[in-house]
Amino acid sequence: MEKVRDIVREGKRVAKEDPRRVVHSFKVGLVLSLVSSFYYYQPLYDSFGVNAMWAVMTVVVVFEFSVGATLGKGLNRVAATLFAGALGIGAHHLASLSGPTGEPILLAVFVFIQGKLYIYQ
Taking the domains of the chain in order of start, what are their residue ranges? Predict the structure, then answer.
């Protein structure tokens, strides 16, 4: 019971310091509940399938404290996805030109190069 009291005290302290953080936490909880309905509500799940879980992950990754930050992060995510898709298509095209023997080798090299670039920025 003491842990519950500590959590409530901490919540009150945070609410006094910056009430916007409490409002933001309720907004995140509401959005996650709504988006999770794609995964748990059977007719929506039948339409979207397991891919509905990516909507939940997107909310977790993109949702920020302010609307502008969320919009900016979302637009950056869209641009990065399009760029990564173009890189993937280009790598596949280049690898397919090398024939059935060279294709898996080139794809492995491309994956290695991208992994190295992303890790050692």
Answer: 1-63, 66-121
Question: What confidence tens digit (pLDDT) does each residue in 27-53 have?
Answer: 888 888 888 777 777 777 777 777 777
Residues 6 or more apart in contact with residue 55 via CB below 8 angstroms: 35, 38, 39, 48
Q: Helix, strand or coil for residue 99?
A: helix
pLDDT digits (tens, 9 = 90+) for 13-27: 888 888 888 888 888
pTM of the model: 0.60
What one-character-per-residue DSSP string does 19-74 give? HHHHHHHHHHHHHHHHHHHHHHSHHHHHHHGGGHHHHHHHHHHH--SSHHHHHHHH
